[in-house]
TrEMBL record:
Residue ranges crossing the lipid bilayer per the database entry: none
Entries under Pfam families matching the protein: vWA-TerF-like
Signal peptide extent: none
SUPFAM superfamilies to which the protein is assigned, alphabetical: vWA-like
Organism: Polaromonas hydrogenivorans
Protein name per UniProt: VWA domain-containing protein
Residue ranges constituting the VWFA domain according to the UniProt record: 30-240
């Protein structure tokens, strides 16, 4: 049975957790969650586990995002798999993965590259310049205008993966360049596992970059049953609190 949550109540609990950490004015952040859709994660997508995980994180969107939503992106391997699914909000969070992702997104059941979807996310929030679409001749005749460049938005990105990636150096390069540009983006990587010990690369980038954190969820089915207070305590370490205060 799908998890149902009082998102407003959970958002209130998150605000209390932040206030205890010295954050009394809630930061305004665009929120995104990036979800791995490689083949090894299929069982958790099909049985609703990842939908429940997104549900437990949905209050972060209500708390931080000015539009009370979280943009959802998916990925497996290669640039073509980096896909903006849409927004998760209070009205559509139930069954989100099955309704919008399973067998519907490019790269479903592929391999695993992190760098391309990281780039896509940075483009969505304006930190990497994307290719603006220009109106064609007929479009201009009909009054269409060239698409404006995306505005830079301070953003928190929760990146959910169940395994190792094949593009380690390219991923480091994307994060290195983002940090050098001083992009106002924090990447919180969640390594989801039932076996443990598969996330040495995520640990290494969590240590290497000031705007990148890592948490291992060793038993995701147990994790989604935790209290809001316990989930907030697990995710809000000193580095993330410091970034939220900055």
């Amino acid at each position: 049975m799908a998890l149902t949550l009082n998102l407003q109540k959970s958002s209130g609990t998150l605000k209390l957790s932040l206030q205890k950490s010295g954050i009394h004015t809630m930061p305004v952040l665009d929120m995104a969650m990036v979800l791995d859709v490689s083949g090894s994660f299929e069982d958790e997508h099909l049985d609703g586990t990842t939908t429940d995980l997104l549900t437990r994180l949905a209050p972060w969107g209500l708390t931080f995002d000015p539009d009370k939503k979280i943009d959802i992106l998916t990925f497996s391997n290669g640039a073509a798999s980096a896909h903006l699914v849409g927004a998760l909000n209070e009205d559509n969070y139930q069954g989100y993965v099955r309704n919008h992702i399973v067998n519907k997104v490019p790269g479903w059941n592929g391999a695993t590259d992190y760098s391309y979807v990281l780039e896509r996310t940075l483009k969505e929030f304006g930190w990497i310049k994307g290719e603006a679409k220009k109106a064609g001749f007929l479009g201009r005749m009909l009054g269409q205008k060239d698409e404006a460049a995306k505005a830079k938005k301070r953003s928190l990105v929760i990146f959910i993966t169940d395994g190792d990636n094949n593009d380690k150096e390219r991923t480091r390069q994307v994060l290195r360049e983002s940090e050098a540009r001083r992009d106002e983006v924090y990447f919180l990587f969640l390594g989801v596992s039932n076996g443990g010990g598969r996330f040495s690369f995520l640990e290494s980038i969590g240590d290497a970059f000031g705007n990148t954190g890592f948490r291992e969820i060793a038993n995701v089915r147990q994790f989604i049953t935790k209290s809001d207070e316990d989930i907030n305590a697990f995710l809000l370490d000193d580095e993330l609190i410091g970034w939220l205060k900055s």
